[in-house]
From TrEMBL:
InterPro entries xref list: PAS, PAS-like_dom_sf, PAS_4, Sig_transdc_resp-reg_C-effctor, Tscrpt_reg_LuxR_C, WH-like_DNA-bd_sf
Designated name of the protein: Helix-turn-helix transcriptional regulator
Any Pfam family hit: PAS_4
Keywords assigned: DNA-binding, Transcription, Transcription regulation
Family annotation (PROSITE patterns): HTH_LUXR_1, HTH_LUXR_2
CDD domains: LuxR_C_like, PAS
Residue ranges of every copy of the HTH luxR-type domain listed in the record: 157-222
The keyword Transcription regulation belongs to this UniProt entry's keyword annotation: yes
Signal peptide: none
């Protein structure tokens, strides 16, 4: 028989609201912990896309190069116009609604999850957000906050897979999910011989030694067939 006191404690715990009020702390300590934690990208920007702060991890995630000088720069100084337009629209939405927005995107061949948080400034400058990002390698699906709406970008940067044609990307994704050539052929309504031809081209272009390596690449990038329908961002040098 269960202990009534224990049962009562569990009931209280189950209805106890989650604490969201911040305890007393030194803001500099919290900022240092956030921006210097390995694998966490942090960027502060505003409604115009001005880069106010970018840590090294964010630079690598979104520019693929560490140590860039972002002083006085804007998002459009580092990214293509269509990417900038979409991101500014997301930032504007976060500022207008006053609540965070999660973004799932693939950039430089890496699947990145970002959460855009509004900064509730009590004095100027206003209209700023902080973007916290990390790759799927450091993120479990169970860790995603379901209370925050997640949006999916219309654009994609395949990184090393950019050398593949659109059809080759589709075939690579399906083979990378462990499907056999006959199943891929049936799904894409092509002959097995055509799929074998695509598979050979993919293997040669990417320098692979077997389907297992392709599975690893696709799995690490988190690519699915819907991603192959996204608009490609222009290749960057």
């Amino acid at each position: 028989m269960s202990d009534p006191a224990e049962s009562s404690t569990k009931n209280v715990a189950s209805v106890r609201p989650v604490r969201v009020d911040a305890p007393e702390f030194d803001p500099n300590s919290i900022w240092t912990a956030l921006t210097q934690t390995a694998g966490i990208g942090v960027c502060v920007t505003d409604h115009e896309g001005r880069l106010i702060y970018v840590n090294d991890t964010a630079m690598v995630l979104f520019s693929d190069v560490p140590g860039l000088d972002y002083t006085g720069k804007f998002i459009h100084d580092f990214h293509p116009p269509e990417y900038v337009k979409e991101r500014l629209a997301m930032i504007a939405r976060v500022l207008a609604e006053g609540k965070p927005l999660a973004i799932r995107h693939i950039y430089h061949g890496k699947q990145i999850h970002s959460t855009v948080w509004p900064i509730r400034d009590s004095k100027p400058p206003y209209h700023r957000v902080v973007v916290v990002s990390r790759t799927t390698s450091g993120l479990l699906k169970t860790e995603l906050d379901k209370s925050i709406e997640t949006v999916r970008t219309e654009f994609i940067d395949y990184g090393p897979l950019s050398i593949l044609t659109q059809r080759e990307v589709e075939v690579a994704v399906l083979l990378g999910h462990g499907m056999s050539v006959p199943k891929v052929a049936k799904l894409l309504q092509r002959s097995p011989k055509t799929i074998e031809r695509h598979k050979s081209a993919i293997t040669q272009k990417l320098g692979l030694h077997g389907q297992a390596e392709l599975v690893m690449i696709i799995s690490e990038m988190g690519l699915d067939l819907d991603d192959a329908k996204l608009k490609r961002l222009p290749a960057t040098e």
